[in-house]
Specification:
about 100 residues; mainly alpha; Cytochrome Bc1 Complex, Chain D, domain 2; 2 domains; 5 helices; about 0% strand
Length: about 100
């Protein structure tokens, strides 16, 4: 029984340390599905971090919005998501540039 306690104690300690490290590592967070398809640019990381909690990259890429449309969409989504005003401004600017109206 003491060997079992030792193994379980080690496993619990190892798990706690791993979870603590993962919580501090941004790459450990779930990524937006399809994020690799998004073009590079300022605001891309904020888009992945904030928008990626609910949307995949295909949702963004399928839109046909001009600058005002992206701004309004981001403002709507901002009411239902976590992010700062700076995040939302960067996201709107990024989406406008990366996915202009067709």
């Amino acid at each position: 029984m003491s060997k079992l306690k030792c193994v379980l104690g080690f496993s619990a300690s190892f798990l706690a340390a791993t979870l603590a490290a993962a919580a501090q590592t941004p790459s450990a967070l779930p990524a937006m599905v399809g994020a690799a398809q998004l073009p590079p640019g300022e605001g891309r990381d904020a888009t992945i971090r904030v928008c990626g909690t609910c949307h995949d990259a295909g949702t963004l890429m399928s839109q046909d919005l001009d600058a005002e449309g992206w701004k309004q969409t981001v403002e709507e989504m901002a009411r239902m998501s976590d992010g700062t005003d700076d995040d939302f401004a960067a996201i709107a600017a990024y989406l406008t540039k990366a996915f202009p109206a067709k």
